[in-house]
Amino acid sequence: MLKPTGDLSASGRMGSEVVEVGRVTLQTIAEHVGVSRMTVSNAFSRPDQLSEDLRARILTAADDLGYAGPDPAARALARGRTGVIGMVLTNSPKDAFTDDVAVGFVRAVAGSLADEGYSLVLLHSSHDSGVVPARDVAMDGAIVYSCAPAVSAFAALRERRLPIVNVEGSPLPGVPDVGIDNASGAYEAAKHLIDLGHSRIAIVVAALDIDDVPASETALDTGSLTIAGRMDGWMRALDEAGIVPRVVGTPALGIDAVLRERIDRMLDDPPTAVLAFSDLAALEVMERARGRPPRPGAALHRGLRRQPLSARVSPALTTVRQDVDAKGRAAVRALLGVMRRDELAPAPPLLPTALVVRESTSRPSGAPG
Amino acid sequence: MLKPTGDLSASGRMGSEVVEVGRVTLQTIAEHVGVSRMTVSNAFSRPDQLSEDLRARILTAADDLGYAGPDPAARALARGRTGVIGMVLTNSPKDAFTDDVAVGFVRAVAGSLADEGYSLVLLHSSHDSGVVPARDVAMDGAIVYSCAPAVSAFAALRERRLPIVNVEGSPLPGVPDVGIDNASGAYEAAKHLIDLGHSRIAIVVAALDIDDVPASETALDTGSLTIAGRMDGWMRALDEAGIVPRVVGTPALGIDAVLRERIDRMLDDPPTAVLAFSDLAALEVMERARGRPPRPGAALHRGLRRQPLSARVSPALTTVRQDVDAKGRAAVRALLGVMRRDELAPAPPLLPTALVVRESTSRPSGAPG
DNA sequence: CTGAAAGCGCTTACAG
DNA sequence: CTGAAAGCGCTTACAG
Predict the structure, then answer these.
(1) Most exposed among A3, A50, B139, B298, judged by the fewest C-beta atoms under 10 Å?
(2) How many CB atoms within 10 Å of residue B252?
C-alpha cells in the first residue's frame, strides 16, 4: 500500500498544465534520479549528508532540468531565516542618498553584511502603495539609521520582534545603539578654538529654533541626539573657559532659508570663530562671511570623490572626522550579536572621533574661522 | 467527528514549550476570535471579504496578542511574490557606491520602486561566505547595472528565470536594455570641438588597451558597451570632418596608473582638444596638462553635493549630461513591464543626452580644452 | 459573508 | 548514507 503523498502534487500539476512542464522543484529532480526529495535537498544544502557520487548525479540532473537551486522563499519559510537585513534610512532612501555620510554608511554596511553572507534591503517609509516595508518585507533583522524614535518603521520592526540596532539615533529601551561620540568630538573642536585664543565664538546648529541667543539662555530642546551631543561637548569646553557663545539655529533638520537668514544677521556683528553642526554648515558660514551672497562662478577643484568635502574646499576645513566604515562595521557586528544570542548584546562603545585641523582655523584676527 | 487539522500545530507547540506562548500566527488569532484561519487572513489581506465589524474584532485581537501581521516569508511562498527587487551593481555595492552616477541611479531606482510598492535589495557578487545573492535571495526580479555579460550573477538570475533588465550593459538576448544614447552624446561632443575649429584631437578611453595610436589603426575591441558607444559617436563626427584622432586607453575599467602614464606621454606632444570617456578622465587630463604632477594644495570650491562634479571644477567642464533619475525610472518601468506580461516588453528607447558647454572648451590656441 | 481543502517548495530532526 | 513524517505560516480558488 503505497502512500501517494509525494507524487500527488507533481502528477496533479502535470495533468492540469498541458503545454508547460510546470515548475521544476526538488520533487521533480528526486523523481528523475530516483531518490527522495530530502536527499535532493541535502545535495544542495548539506553536501556531507550523502555520497559524492550520488550528489554529483543529483546536481547533474538538476542542471539538465534547469533547476537553479532551492527556492529562496520556500527555504526562508522552512528555515526561519531569509539572509536579508533591512535598513531604514533617515527619511526615504531618496533623501539619504544625497548625504555623503549616509551613502558611506550604506556602503560600509553592505560590505560588512556581504562578508557575513547577508544582503541589504533598503526600507522606504510607508507609501501611497500601501506597502510598509518594515512590516511587509521578509528579513532577519534591521539597522535603523538616524531616525527619530517616532518613525513608524520603528514600531513595525519592534512589533515583529525583529532584531534591530539603532544607529545615530535616540536611545531606545532594549535596542543597542551605535554611533560616534559626538560630545567628545565637539569638545575637542571647541577646545581647539579656545586654545587658539578665540573668545567671541558662535555656534550654528539645526533642529533647534534659535536666533542668535547667548548660550546661557538656551534650552537644548533638540530632537536630534547628534546635535544634542555636539552641543553638550561644545558647551562643556566653553563653560570651562568661561565663554558664552551665541547660538544660531533652525528648526529644520538641515540648512534652510531660515538658518541662512539668521547666519547673515549674526554675521553683521561677526564672531572670530564659528562652531558648526556640519561641514556643509561651516561652508555656508564661510561663504556668507566673505562676499555674500556666494559667487557661483569661480571654482577650482581636485581630489574628486575620495576626498571628503572638508578637504576639497579652500580654505580647507578644520573638522571632526568620523570613521564611517567603522560605524558600518560596528552596526553590523551589533546586529549580528542581537541575532545570534537572543539576549541583548552589550551595546558597543561610542565610536571615537578625530579632530582634523586644516586651514580654516587660525588665531583670531579678522574674519571668522 | 472533528478533524484536528488546525489545532494540531497550535496545541502541539503549546505543549512542548512551557514558558513562552509560542509564536502568534493567524491560527492563534483565529482560535481567539472563534473564526477560521482564512477569515483572519482575509481581515489582513482582503478587507472587502468580511464585515467591518468582524474585521475590527479580528484586528483588535491581533493587536492584543501582539501579532504584527502575516509573516512575509510565508506570504511570499504562498503568493509567489516577495515585493523585493534585486540590483546587481558593477562589482560589489562597495565599489559602486563611490561613483556618483551609480549612487544617483540606485537612489532613483529605490524611489521609483517605492512608488510601486517594491523594496530594493542590493546583491553583492558571490563571496567567501558561500552565499550567492543572485541565486539565494528571494525576489521578484532584478536590475543589472553596468555589468559584463559574463558576471556570474547574470547566469544565476537567468537560471532562476527571474525577470531582469540590463542597464548600461551589453545587449543580451531576451533581456530588455536601458541606457543612455552614448553614441549620439559623443557625436555631439566631437562635433562641438570640430565646430570650434579643433583638428588635433585626442581621445582618452578605458577598457581598451591602446597607447597613442591613430584612430584609423584602432580596433575597437572594448568589453564596455558604454565606451564602444562613445567611440562610435566620436569617430563618426571625426570621420565626417576628415580628422584622425590619437587614442590613448587602458585595459582597466577606469583611470589607473597605466592610463595616467599614457596620458602624460601623449601630452608631450599635446593635442588642442581632448575627448574623454568620463568627467573624471577629463579632469585627469586637464590636471596633467597644466603643472603636472597635480598640486594637492589649492582648492576653492562651492556647489556641494547637488552639483555635478563637472560644474564644480575650474574651468568648468563641457560635458555630456545624462538624466540619472530618468534612467532609474526607465529601468523600473521596463522591469515592471517584463514582470507583468510574461512576454518581452518592447525595449525602451535609449535615453537622450545633452551636451552642456562650459568653460573648458574654446577655440584652439594653446592648452588642450 | 465565512470556511474546508489543497497547496506554495523547502527543511529539520529522527529512524533505519 | 538515505528516507518517511511533520511542519514552516500563509493564500488561492471554490463551495456554501
Answers:
(1) A3
(2) 14
- Number of structural domains (chain B) is 3
A238 within a domain of the structure (yes/no):
yes
**Which residue is closest, via its CA, to the C1' of C5?**
B5
Q: Name which of A1, A69, A2 is nearest A29 in CA terms.
A: A69
Query: Residue A228's pLDDT is what?
Result: 87
A299·B314 Cβ contact <8 A? yes
Q: Is residue A203 part of a domain?
A: yes
Which CATH number is A192's domain given? 3.40.50.2300
Q: Is the CB of A35 under 7 A from strand D?
A: yes
CATH at B51? 1.10.260.40
Nearest CA in chain A to B70: A136
Cell numbers standing for residue B45? 489581506
A187 and A316 share a domain? Answer: yes
Do A186 and A296 belong to one domain? yes
Q: Both B61 and B175 in a single domain? A: no
Q: Across the interface, do B94 and A110 touch by the CB < 8 Å criterion?
A: yes
Query: What DSSP letter does each residue of B144-167 carry, written as one string?
Result: EES--TT-HHHHHHHHTT--EEEE
A314:B299 CB<8 A: yes
Q: DSSP E strands: which ranges in chain A?
A: 84-89, 119-123, 141-145, 164-167, 177-178, 201-205, 211-214, 246-249, 273-276, 319-322, 353-356
**Nearest chain B residue (CA) to A85:** B121
- Does one domain contain both A52 and A91? no
Nucleotide at minimal C1' distance from the A80 CA:
D8
Query: Residues contacting strand C at CB < 7 A?
Result: A 8-9, 12-13, 23, 25-27, 37-38, 41-42, 44-46, 70-71, 74-75, 77-79; B 3, 5-6, 35-36, 38-39, 42, 48-51, 54, 74, 77-78, 80
Nearest to A137 among B119, B123, B294 (CB): B119
Based on the fold, state whether residues B195 and B244 are members of the same structural domain.
yes
Q: Which domain holds residue A99?
A: 84-179+328-334
CB contact under 8 Å between B69 and A107, yes or no, is: no
* Pair (A102, A166) in one structural domain: yes
Q: Could you give the angle at which helices B100-115 and B324-340 cross, rounded to 10 degrees?
A: 50
d(CA A322, CA A325) in angstroms, rounded, equals 9
**Residues of chain A found within 8 Å of residue B120, distances taken between Cβ atoms:** 93, 121-122
pLDDT, position A253: 77
Q: Is residue B202 domain-shared with residue B234, that is, in the same domain?
A: yes
**Which tens digits make up the pLDDT trace of A87-113?**
998 766 667 787 778 899 999 999 999
**Domain-embedded: residue A234:** yes
Same domain, residue pair A148 and A34 = no
